[in-house]
Amino acid sequence: MRNRPLFALAALALAAALPARAAVELSVTGEARQEAATLQFTDRYQSLAQYLQASIGTDVKLVIGRDPSRELQKMRAGMYEVLVGPAHVIGAAMRYGYEPVARFAGEESAAFVVSKASGIKDFDGAKGKRLALPPTDSLATYLARGELNAKGVVAKTYFADIKAHRYHEVALMALEVGQADVAVAESRLAKEWVAKNGGAIVLETRATPGLGIAVNAKLDKATKDRVRAAFLSPNPRVVASTRVLGLDISGAKAITAEDYKYVSTLGYFTPRSLPGATMVTADQVADILKKGGTLYDTRSAEEYNQRHIKGAKLLPYGEKSPKEVGFDAAKDTFDVKKLPEDRNAPVVFACNGAECWKSYKASLAAVKAGHKQVHWFRGGFPEWSLAGLPTESVTGNLAQKN
Q: Taking a C-beta distance cutoff of 8 angstroms, is the pair 82, 52 a contact?
């Protein structure tokens, strides 16, 4: 890097003036665009991590997440100190123990695009057609499903077929090669595609804030204040020496929960009840465990090993079905045979909060298998952790076995 000497001097000067602290983990969740796989994308956020390190006088470890679903799960479990991500990630973070810091300039929205060959003239004409989407937890799909909900449209019955693709560009490519009639993509990409290929945009969502920053509320106050200052009152000397690539630090603006009010209402929230199961709170789960009940953590082994509710057993729910009522359980994997043979024994299922469907689906599977005392801990690990109740991790050889 051309400015490495200047960056090193700035970092050393600040580090000498500030007490040594543990490394801060910076998580960047990229939107599902092909750009996320490029070296340019990596360099951009490496330079941001270097800038933040020089600004706060603390080592910064960069984690780039290219799978929005996975990063949302980790965020809900409070695994990162600082988050950088699209609006739905930052909006959700505020519900799971993070504080808003700032946002970069720009807004984002999603568009429903139709191909010229489809003959579709408006959104009503898309009924019964094939829909191509970016990944389930991308911002564009998040906004699109929210718009459909607002219109009272049930996607799985409105469209003849729905397929999720790895990137926005791939969803648009499905239009181009005739594999779909309608596609959802970020509005900017959608407009570029229409200009090149014809067709039209038949519906566009409301705009949301662009890339945002949030900080874990459990981080010490001094470090949180330095993180805020790095984006809202940047040191000109540090900005000049580190050269953040592709992001305008000077254009960052303070944010509040109000800025994310719209996008926060669009989450894929689980239902508030489950016939045959009892909804329970963190305190009630603690009481059930004391009385000999079993709590099953339905998250992945990686999440469980890193941190879980003390005493919980790992029983992963392999989720391939959509996050919706009426999902097709045949697409998923869950071993109900690992539940107690005594179907009157109390069992509890938990995952990553109200937006995580794994524990809901596991609870439903247990009910269908004939278990009589099924308890669904909808708030899951985030509620337990925020309540200050005991957690534990699996380390060393034991973690490897799982």
A: yes
Task: State the fold for domain 277-401.
Answer: Oxidized Rhodanese; domain 1 (3.40.250)
**Torsion, Cα of 385, 302, 59, 388 (10° steps):** 10
Q: How many CB atoms lie within 10 A of CB 157?
A: 10
Report the C-alpha gap between 59 and 11 in whole angstroms: 10
- pLDDT one-digit tens code per residue, 189-235: 999 999 999 999 999 999 999 999 999 999 999 999 999 999 999 99
Q: Which of 64, 56, 102 is nearest to 80 (CA)?
A: 64
**CA–CA separation, 303 and 59 (whole Å):** 24
Which CATH number applies to 110-205? Answer: 3.40.190.10
Angle, helices 187-197 vs 168-176, to 10°: value is 20
CA nearest neighbour of 357 among 144, 140, 76: 76
If you ran DSSP here, which 8-state letter would residue 251 be given? G
Assigned CATH for 4-106+209-264: 3.40.190.10
- Compute the C-alpha angle 154/159/161, nearest 5°: 125
- Cα–Cα distance between 274 and 172 in angstroms, integer? 37
Q: CB of 245 within 8 A of CB of 47?
A: yes
pLDDT value of residue 20 = 45
pTM value? 0.73
Three-class SS string for 296-336? EECCCHHHHHHCEECCCEECCCECCCCCCCCCCHHHCECCH
| Per-residue tokens: 335 | 């071993």
Query: Between residues 72 and 84, which one has the greater pLDDT?
Result: 84
Rounded-to-integer distance, Cα 296 and Cα 170, Å: 37
Residue 12 has pLDDT above 80, yes or no: no
Compute the CA torsion angle 156, 162, 165, 167 (nearest 10 deg): -70
Which residues does 3 contact at the CB level (< 8 Å), separation at least 6? 241, 242, 243
Ranges of each domain in the chain: 4-106+209-264, 110-205, 277-401
Structure tokens at 19: 């007490």
Contact 164, 137 (CB under 8 A): no
Decide whether 4-106+209-264 matches 110-205 in CATH topology.
Answer: yes
Using one digit for the tens of pLDDT, what is the confidence trace for 272-297? 889 999 999 999 999 999 999 999 99
